[in-house]
Each structure stands twice: as C-alpha cells, then as structure tokens.
Structure prediction request, 475 residues.
Amino acid sequence: MDDDRRRRFEAVYQQNYEQILGYAVRRCATPEDAADVVAETFATAWRRVDSLPRGDEARLWLYGVARNVLANHRRGQAHRQSRLATLTADIADVYTRSPEGAAERDVIARAFAGLPDADRELLALVAWEGLDHGQIATVLDISRNAVRIRLHRARRRLSQALENDEITADRFAVEPT
Amino acid sequence: MNELQGLARVRDEDLAGRSTGLAARALFDAILTTESPSPARTRRPRRRLLLGLAVAAAFTSALVVGPTLVAGPHGATSYANAAMHIELQDGLWVARVKDPHADWALYEEAFRAVGADVTLEIVPAAPDRVGHHLGGGRSVMTSGGPDTLVTGIEPDGCLIGEEGCHLVIKVDENLSGRAYIRLGRAAKPGEVYKSHGTATKAGGMLSGFRVDERPVSEVRKEAERRGLQVVYQIIEPNPDGQGFGLDPDDQSLPVGDDWIVWDAEPHADGVVRLIVSEERVPLNPLYGGPKPRELTSG
Prediction:
C-alpha cells in the first residue's frame, strides 16, 4: 500500500507542482517564503495522502492547503524550513524578472493592495488561478452563493478604490471566465 | 482580458517544466524522507503509539534494561541494544543493524539515545534493493554534505544473515533535521516486498523484456516462461494518461487477457506484479508518458 500511496502522491505532485509554485510565488514577498509554502503544502499532502481527492479536485484541495499554510506563515506561526536552498534558488529567478511596469499598473496594484485580505484572495483566485465560482467554493470551503456575494462585494470595493484613484473601474472586469 | 492578471508576479505558464526540474525533485525526495503519511485506517497509529511508549521507556530505564550507553565529553558516543549498535566514527554516527527483523522502535531508541532524530524502518525488498534506501534519497531539510545519510551493506556485497554481514546506516553527527529512512532487507520466503521499482532492468525478474503498453496475455506468457507467478495490481488511469487512481477494495476483479500492462514490479520471491488497467489511455499513467527505454535492459 505504501508504494501505491507514493505513486499516487508522485502523480499529484507532478501534475500540480507548477500551479502550487505559481500560487505561492504570486502571494509571497520573497523566494524563501514561497519555497516554504510550496514545501509545507506538499508535505501536508503527503501526510494526508489518503485524503487526497482525485483529478482536478486535488488541485483545489492543494490550493486550500496552501492558503492555510500561507495564513499561518503570515501569522508567524509556521515552522520555518531553513534547508530549502535548492528550491529557493530555483524560485529566485522569478523574483528578479523586471516587471513590465506602467504607471497605470501601479495604480491598480495600490488599489488591490489596499483591499482586505479576503477580497484580494477571492479576486486573485479568479484572475491568477483562473477558478470559477464552484472551484473557489471548494478551495475556500464555502457555498457557491457565498462566493458570488463576496466576489461581488470585493469587485465593488476594488472599483471604489480605483475610482478614488481616478481610474475607470469598468475597465477592470474581474468576472470569472 | 482581466487586468488584475498583470499584477501577478508570474503566470503558471511561465513555470512550465519546473515540475521535472532538480528543485522539484529535491523537494519531492525531501518530503518522502522526512514525512510519512498518517493513514486513515490501518494498524499504523497503534504502532506509533507503541513506538512512543517504547521510546519513553528507553529514556526512563535505558541503563537498567540492557542497552549500553557510553558517554563521552559531549554526551553519548556509542549505544547498543538488541537490534542495533551505534558508534561515532569520524564525524558520522555509524549504525550497524544486528537484527533486521526487530521492532522498529528499537532502532529509533538507539538513534535517539545518541541524539539523532532518525526514524528507521527496515522492510522486505527485492534482492537488488537490499541495503538500499527506499525512501527516495537524502533530505535537503537536514544539514551536512552529500554524505549526510548513507546506507548499505558491510562488508560490501555480503549476504545479510551471514555472520558479520550487516545493514549499515551512516548519519552526519551534526544532523539537524529529522531523517526518515526506509531501508531494504532480504525478504523471508513468501514475504511481499515493500520496495518499489520496475522488474525489467538488468538483473530483474523480467530483465530486457518490454512489458509496458502490451496486453496481459503476452506479458503473462513471458513471465510464466521464466517460471514466475503473476499477480496483478489494477489501476484506474485518468483519461489523458496523466496519473491514475487505485481502489484498494477493487483488486480482486478478474483481469482480462486483453487488459493493458503499464509496468511490472517484483512482488515477492518468484512472483511478479503486473500493473494493469482495463482501458488503454494515450500516455503511460505511471510515467505520464512513455516508460523510459533505459528501464528495460539486460
């Protein structure tokens, strides 16, 4: 059975590594933090390999774990893995890429950064991970209806923040595709 | 176009290929060597409890019940119990397994006694995996160089069970993390191997015979020609061949001659296990692509 577990974990790991790495890199300020989040997320997946759902559900499940890991990290409660040199080095190049920055983007970034954490995460799951309402409901373990309502509010708050910066809000559609 | 996307530091597409890179591999190995699954419903939790009790007992009564602990200026420098002998040699803890069939708790007790946080499980393995670390490699979460964790047989090439032939584990004295080592030992007759790996490499049960993506009837014929008994493991490939599921309660289905073999593994002495599915899928679900040619040799 252990070999079956290992094979199953390996398949899930290979299929989702890049998505979880992307999730972490987009939300962590440093390569070290991103490496920690990726490592702890997959370590949790291995510890709980018997609970891993199949297919695409596995990815959503991993996003949910990564979200919790990240939250613990931000609260400073995470056990820091200090020996992830290989992974940290691998991620570092992503952080050194120069953003194709424009003044307009800075405005969006500022408005986005000013939103409550929960709003940011909802909007990011749509814009960055490309998830629909149902998938977000799975990741956050809330109802689809709650996702719809909270997304609506998050979009409204983003629009208000952008209007305050005199950027036309309706240019930034954040509907799920 | 969603302009929030422009705020992302990186898109998933930009990371394509990293899942097969060195860093991904190192992390995978590290996780497998430092963590172990917490099964939902097996005997394992009970074993862990017993193990915990055994370790606690070792700490309270180590010097009374038999193990010998030799203290140096910086703490213990050697330790022995019925299962294992450990001593410090040139900056490495050298552990020689006296009894490969002992309760795993005794190995852990020995390592803990010298201050090393090592969990050692010794499991039956195919002959070519005896003395090998089956856990996937050393951990990057521990300190030290490439020799942080070495396993093998001493003297080289001897047969476990013969006088003076030991499984040996060498661990850096300054190990700072937790190491999880799963080490292969010779299987008893009929005992199912816990090692993992293809049977088609040189020296394997089906060395040189291509098994992957062939019908069951062809592979079984070759296995029987070599005097092997055949057992099956039934998998449910994802439709695109990227990965698979496995239902442990659904392994007794009759396997058809036209089912597809994806790989073969040594199962026990004289028994080969074919990993099969009823449906053919575009990629080998075990490998997410073709099985590498070099894995069929000899």
Summary: Residues 214-295 of chain B form one domain. The longest strand of chain B covers residues 260-268. Chain B touches chain A through 56 residues (CB under 8 Å). Chain B has two domains: 28-186, 214-295.
